[in-house]
Write a structure and sequence with these properties.
Blueprint lengths: L10 H6 L8 H29 L5 H45 L3 H7 L1 H9 L4 H29 L1 H7 L3 H38 L1 H6 L3 H53 L7 H32 L1 H7 L21 E8 L8 E8 L4 E6 L5 H9 L6 E6 L2 E2 L5 H5 L2 E4 L10 H5 L9 H10 L3 H5 L18 H14 L4 E5 L7 H14 L4 E5 L3 H5 L3 E6 L2 E6 L1 H7 L1 H9 L12
Parallel strand pairs: 3-8, 3-9, 6-7, 7-8
Antiparallel strand pairs: 1-2, 1-4, 4-5, 9-10
Helix pairs in contact: 2-3, 2-6, 2-11, 3-6, 5-8, 6-7, 6-11, 8-10, 8-11, 10-11, 16-18
């Protein structure tokens, strides 16, 4: 599948996964000891049952049988409680580990894997981690119980017990075969689950666009393909479960036949009592029970290896440390940004930016223009260190961006996108997002006024405490954009990046907000990506990109002479060039 990495997840890597976070061993060890005790209680129940079958209906036997069953129930409850609590802690800690990893993934990894696949790994796949730890301890208990019951069975009748050894090769064969099938089955199920999660996460969130293009019928067809992928995986799972059940039943049936044939022969020879087969079958039933448990635990462990493959490969992948690198020197942010032969592409061999070299002056307004796909937005991400150039270097004063601490570097930037994500929570929380302490209400309101948002915020049901809904769904597009602008202004960044920041606003509002921002952040560096030439013309420096290459830099007057692309943009928007009349 396209969003899942197919790198091999070896058994060694599978085991090392569990060294990455603390496991509450004491809970599982307690569960283990309780399991050992429960085995002895189960054997005691079997002994009492054999005596009852022989007609020993004494009060002591009946009371002992009843008490042992009560103890068995109590111990089973305690085993489930300790194991369940331990499993919940493992899931909690494994999920925290994966969440931290996702947050520290390089941006290229996030986009390559797609957020919906990462969500599926965090919500679904990771839950298998707790099952592994619990099954490992349960396997130890089951093995102990298996050998303990085998010993009791041998003590009861050694000859018939030795006959049962003939079944050992069959058990081993079933053990290995079904375990391999379980691994493939779970790998396929979780892959199909991620395919389905990715599809519906993307397409349901874009429901408005689907309806706007009248694409419901086509999306139904595409959705059914994703559902069908999961359906086929479920059929495969059902088939494998049937194979597993059949193999276990055949093994038990063969064991019953061996006991009947060999036991009847021993009875004819006078080496076993007439009730011997029934009594022996009581122990054999316990042995079969624990054999099935060991087999099931092994199959489950192999299945979780397949289920955790995506998580394991993800955790072994690249990671960005926001604290790694050199701290920015004092006053370093009051410096120019310099690009030296910078090239970058999202896909190898398909560069978006080619050999860019220019300087963005500190404390000035720099506008970047270019045709669609020329790399304007990509350039802004490179300035923040969100992506690293494939070649060349970006400097913040005398400090290379790639050697700076990402957390310190990015806190110097405010970033306003064309479509800014908001988070569930209050208006205040969204404006103050990025504040490590409590929000400063005075600064929140000041930023809102600068973004022309204060008036509409105060008209909301709860003012600044109003919940904006998931992704700001309870606000209009223009309201969301104003809050996003206020969020960038709240931190008073040294460098403000505006990527079509007024696209959701009418021109008058956009122009008014931009004038206010320029006045408020006078002396700060403002970098604007815009198509509206009225915004671009007043910039101190204009950068013209043409298909990812630098065509020219300069002021409005300089570019009139140096840049055909710049002149073409002016013409298309009705501006008069020197010696020409403005378009009507």
């Amino acid at each position: 599948m396209k969003n899942k990495q197919k790198a091999k997840f070896s058994f060694g890597a599978y085991l090392s996964f569990f060294t990455r976070f603390p496991i509450p061993w004491w809970l599982f060890l307690l569960s283990l000891l309780l399991g050992f005790a429960n085995t002895e209680v189960v054997l005691a129940v079997s002994n009492y049952l054999i005596r009852i079958n022989k007609g020993e209906l004494y009060n002591g036997v009946i009371i002992g049988y009843a008490l042992m069953n009560v103890f068995n129930a109590l111990l089973s409850m305690l085993i489930n409680l300790t194991g369940g609590y331990g499993s919940a802690l493992v899931t909690l800690r494994a999920r925290k580990l994966l969440w931290r990893k996702i947050l520290h993934l390089p941006m290229r990894e996030v986009e390559r894997r797609q957020p919906s696949a990462l969500i599926s790994g965090l919500v679904n796949d990771i839950t298998q981690a707790s099952l592994v730890v619990q099954m490992a301890f349960n396997t130890i208990v089951s093995l102990y119980s298996f050998f303990r019951c085998c010993w009791e069975m041998y003590r009861f009748d050694g000859t018939l017990s030795l006959y049962m050894l003939l079944l050992l090769p069959i058990a081993v064969l079933v053990f290995a075969l079904v375990g391999h099938l379980q691994y493939q089955m779970m790998l396929r199920r979780y892959d199909s689950l991620n395919v389905m999660t990715t599809f519906f996460s993307e397409h349901i969130s874009a429901a408005k666009h689907v309806k706007a293009q009248a694409m419901e019928d086509l999306e139904v067809t595409e959705g059914l393909k994703a559902i069908d992928s999961r359906y086929k995986a479920d059929l495969y799972y059902a088939f494998m479960v049937a194979v597993q059940t059949l193999s276990n039943s055949l093994y038990n049936t063969i064991g019953t036949i061996v006991i009947a044939l060999c036991g009847s022969d021993l009875i004819r020879q006078g080496k076993m009592t007439e009730t011997g087969i029934n009594d022996f079958s009581t122990y054999k039933g316990r042995v079969d029970q624990y054999t099935a448990e060991v087999l099931t635990h092994y199959q489950t462990l192999k299945g979780t290896q397949g289920a955790l493959q995506y998580v394991g490969v993800l955790l072994d992948g690249p990671e960005e440390d926001p604290q790694a690198g050199d701290p920015l020197p004092d006053k370093q942010t009051a410096q120019d940004i310099r690009l030296e032969r910078v090239s970058f592409g999202y896909i190898p061999q398909q560069p978006v930016l080619h050999d860019l070299s220019f300087t963005i002056p500190h404390g000035k307004v720099t506008a970047i223009i270019g045709n669609n796909g020329s790399g304007k937005s990509t350039l802004l991400k490179l300035l923040q260190g969100i992506y690293a150039p494939d070649s060349g270097r970006i400097w913040l004063g005398s400090t290379p961006v790639d050697e700076s601490k990402p957390c310190e570097l990015r806190r110097q930037f405010g970033y306003i996108l064309q479509n800014n994500p908001l988070f569930s929570g209050s208006v205040r929380d969204n404006i103050a997002y990025g504040e490590t302490g409590s929000a400063d209400q005075r600064r929140v309101e000041q930023a809102a006024r600068l973004a022309d948002a204060d008036s509409f915020i105060r008209q909301l049901p709860n003012g600044y405490d109003t919940d904006v809904g998931a992704a700001g769904a309870l606000l209009s597009g223009g309201q969301r954009q104003r809050i996003a602008i206020a969020r960038a202004l709240y931190i008073r960044p040294a460098y403000l990046l505006m990527d079509e920041a007024g696209a959701s606003l009418d021109h008058r509002s956009d122009a008014a907000i931009f004038r206010t921002v320029r006045e408020e952040l006078k002396g700060h560096t403002i970098i604007v990506v815009a198509h509206d030439m009225r915004t671009v013309m007043d910039a101190d420096l204009i950068v013209v990109l043409n298909h990812g290459e630098l065509e020219a830099t300069g002021t409005h007057d300089e570019l009139l002479a140096a840049s055909p692309t710049y002149r073409d943009y002016l013409k298309k928007q009705g501006f008069a060039l020197p010696g020409e009349e403005a378009a009507k």
